[in-house]
Amino acid sequence: MRVLWAAAELGLDYVHVPLVFDDPKLKSAEFLKLNPAGAVPTIVDDGFALSESLAINLYLAKTYGAGWLYPETNEGEAQAWRWTLWAQGHLEPWVPYDAPLVQLRAAMGEAARAVVRPALGLLDRTLDDRAWLLGDEFTVADLNVACVLSPSRAARLDLSPFPQVHDWLARCYARPAAVATRTRFA
Ligand SMILES: N[C@@H](CCC(=O)N[C@@H](CS)C(=O)NCC(=O)O)C(=O)O
């Protein structure tokens, strides 16, 4: 969904090959040449193969959305990297509901919840004075952080202490590209 949403924002013309996580094709020699991790999402763009959803979104935004989805200044670009790396490091390990991670967090108890709250607090404070993470416009920074805080994940978090995060997520997922992608593929 992360990459499909980015592709929809960018209006890309592409061929989507849907593979579920346990499809044996993911571990075929042919696929492992594209992504040695044998996982989706993986893209091939004009012969260039790339994996890791958030890196793919940065690449697609820079290649096809420079100046709007991807910031045009070095500083803006660095902020897009910063928010992407922040989401990968500070949110991604703590918000999925795959069984092994749920068990791990249950075993950690309060310590696990104590990690997510400050991250959501930082996001909430950032959004106090702006509609989008980098300012007035939606960018790949919003897309990548919102992807990690997907609606199914966010529904299991208590966002009531973080109203800005709640409203920003609603704005992100109300975007026509997000609605169309979720309607088409969810
Ligand atoms: N960090 C990677 C995660 C990729 C990943 O784990 N994908 C899952 C499906 S959501 C998968 O293909 N798993 C197959 C496997 O690891 O064998 C990303 O964001 O792209």
Q: Structural class of the secondary structure composition?
A: mainly alpha
* Helix proportion: 55-70%
Low-confidence stretches: none
Q: Mind telling me which CATH architecture of the largest domain this is?
A: Up-down Bundle
Total count of strands: 2
**CATH T-level topology of the largest domain:** Glutathione S-transferase Yfyf (Class Pi), Chain A, domain 2
Indicate the mean pLDDT: 96
What ligands does this structure carry?
glutathione
Number of individual domains: 2
Report Rg: 17 Å
Write out the strand line-up for the largest beta sheet, numbering strands in chain order: 1-2
Specify the overall morphology.
globular
Q: Kindly estimate the percentage of residues that lie in beta strands according to DSSP.
A: under 5%
Number of helices: 10
Commentary on this structure:
The chain is mainly alpha-helical and 186 residues long. The chain has 2 domains: 2-65, Glutaredoxin (3-Layer(aba) Sandwich), CATH 3.40.30; 74-176, Up-down Bundle (Glutathione S-transferase Yfyf (Class Pi), Chain A, domain 2), CATH 1.20.1050. The chain is built from 10 helices and 2 strands. The protein has helices at residues 2-10, 29-34, 53-64, 74-91, 99-108, 110-126, 140-148, 151-154, 163-174, 176-185; strands at 42-45, 48-51. Strands 1-2 form a two-stranded antiparallel ribbon. A hairpin with a 2-residue loop joins strand 1 (42-45) and strand 2. Helix 1 crosses helix 10 and helix 4 packs parallel to helix 7. The chain is globular. The protein starts with a helix and ends with a helix. The mean pLDDT is 96. Residues 21, 26, 38-41, 52-53 line the site of glutathione (GSH).
